[in-house]
Amino acid sequence: MAWFKRSKPGIRVQNKMEMPDGLWVKCDGCEEVIYKKQLASNSHVCPKCDFHFRIGDRGYLDLLLDSGSFEETDTDLESTDFLHYKDTKRYSDRIRENQRKTGLRDAIRTGTGSLCGKPVVIGVMNFDFIGGSMGSVVGEKIARATDLAAERKCPLILVCASGGARMQESILSLMQMAKTSSRIARFSDQGGLYIPVLTNPTTAGVVASFAMLGDINIAEPGALIGFAGPRVIKQTIGQDLPPGFQRSLFQMEHGFVDLIVHRKEMRSTLDRILRFCVS
Question: pLDDT tens digit string along 185-198?
Answer without folding.
Answer: 999 999 999 999 99
